[in-house]
Task: structure prediction
Amino acid sequence: MRYFYLIGMMLCFVMSGAVFAKDWEEQHLFQAPNHTLTLRVLSSTDTSLFAPIIDQFVQQNPNISVEYLVTGTVDLYDTFRQNASDFDVVISSAMDLQLKLTNDGHALKISGVSHPDWAQWGQGLFAFTAEPAAIVINRAAFAGRRKPQTRQDLILALRARPEVFRGKIGTYDVRASGLGYLFATQDARASETYWRLMEVMGSLDAQLYCCSGEMLDDVANGTLAIAYNVLGSYAHARPDALKKIEVIFPSDFPTTMMRTVFVPKETSQRSAAVSFLKHLILPSTDVSDLGLFRVPFLTSEPNDMGQSMIALEPALLTYLDVLKRRKFIQAWEDAIIQPSF
Amino acid sequence: MTDTTRISGSLRNRLATTLIGGAAVLAVLLFVVVRGYAAQIAQQGQDSILAASASSILDAAIIRDGSVEVDFPYSALSILSTPSDDRIFYAIYRDDTLLSGYESLPRAPFDGSATTAFTTTDFQDDAVRFISARRILVGENLRTHVSVVVGQTQDGLTLTLNRISRNVAVFGIGFFILAALLSYWATSITIERLTRLTISVTRRGPQDLSPVIAPMPVEMAPLVASLNTLMDRLDQSLNRSEEFIAEAAHRVRTPLATVRSYAEATLQRVSKEENRQALRSMVRAIDESSRAAGQLLDHAMITFRADHLEYQDIDLVELVTEFVRSFSPLAEMKDIEFSLHMSPPVHIAGDPILMQNAVRNVIDNALKYSPCESIISITVSAHPNPRVIITDQGPGFPPEQLNTLTERFTRGDNAEGTVGSGLGLTIAQDVALAHEGHLELSNLPKGGACVTFILSA
Result:
């Protein structure tokens, strides 16, 4: 009997060790002074963006430590699928993947949260930021020239100086990035311009990235002249980079993502997880604090905001469909990956 | 009379209960039927949206290079958005192979050649409505079945149904309250006609046996007609009784008077002492019979009239004076003197015939029991109540019988040898009672009876 117990203990140790052993992009423990429990937060957002708000949470709840684990949206989805019970809060910018997890019944229903209807789904999935996709340009590359304000402008600018931009245009690799895929599909849904833009970018040997952060870095250091569909919020979090780059929100049609959060049904620390979620989605009304948060939180005038957002609805599942995805990736690859001459 | 009326239920309650109960049943029925109907319509609504979703997925299916492509539109799933954020599930199959979507969704069996089928089953802890739809794709050398399953939880449907149920419940309760008020009102106006009839019959005077002539609803007409007939018969019967009593008194007294006068005449002519004795006994017996007949008829008259007295203004002083005058010859025969104590008129409301009977019988009684050469004292006074007090100097009442003497046919033990039927005091008492008064019997301290006839103020 004792042996079984020991073996069980060892198994547990090994299994939990296996989770810890995963290679995270970032892993940070916000240690609470009177630590009694640890919330494991699975997120796709860089730690630096969320550190202030998590610090604030730990201050207000001195017995709850927060372990903040960062990975890409697609990996986040797969990781959660495999070990749902290992995490207490899940934050991601890939609305479609988050919605699918919620639709599949993984999100805990939290009632009594007054949140605009368009910013939550099924009382399980809550949106708490509004982050538009942006065109980020290197100021030097456009010195003395008109900066593109729309996608059409961008196409014309690229066609006007192909030699300048060849190999110096960046965008998401939609095959690797969940957020990139979401932006691409929503763009394609909104306008045919997207495909023409991809054709042009493909012809100029576009570089593909996994993450907004890296694209911003490369635009700032001149490796790229233009990055398309970048999260503007990341740019604003890097004041030094802002001197060299400019963030343009296309005026033809906005594609605005909402970062979403849910508490998995499988968590064993429900009340702590729920209070963390409430802390996120109901940022303290203290306006001076808002400066600390480097992400644009949903504000209290949500009704006109709701219009330009990617709708949080089950239709987001459409492009997650295997057949649809295969076809979309096919079309996208045909456009953007062109044999170089 | 009302004490003896047997009560069995209430028409008003029965009517109201029936109407209100009916309204309650109708309200519940209304609720059930409307809710059922609403549920059906709501389900049809969900089904038609599911069908639209499924068909727009199916319509996007094409065969390209031997494989099935389903580039379904965004709207195929976005039309399934509901305010209560229902979860959705879908799956696309080629023949029986899952191409994309959720695994292990329940597939409703198709009925014959139907292309759609619905089923509601529990899936992932929720009740989910599923539609299965299929289509045959024909390629160049290929013919294959593509089918889709689309499911949606029923939170929105439940929400809608609950809202409808609430509204229908409010409507049903409103309907019930309105119907109840209406029932109460209808019952009241129906019963009011009966109440009015009752009041009009109750308020009638004792002599009023005329038919009810107010217009009546057709349902009450037979009752009123019967009532009128009954009253008519009662009226006739009363008239007949009155006539019969008068006739009987006349028929009995007149022959007796004739026989008595013959006996008196014969007594004058007969000289043999034993025959005279026999004739005197005969006259006495005739007197006794005559008195008894008179008193019996008096008593019958009182019993008959007591129920419906004919009130008139009567002066007691005048009434007594008249009787004293008429009894005077009889009194003189026994050397009895009347001593009257009365001066102002004492007016009362009473039935003159009954009052006469009462006073006559009391004075007659006093005369009978008074010894010769005595005084009968009669006092009429108005205070505290109108009363007539008659005292004599006779043997008085046996003290142990004071309470029973007024019973019918009871005579004092000391009345042997005096002509009497035992009805005189009974008659006086009945008349007093009929006029809400009473009769007091007592003995005077120095001997002699005292009868006090008291009327109500």
User: Anything to note?
Assistant: The two ends of chain B are 26 Å apart (CA to CA). Chain B has eight helices and 14 strands.
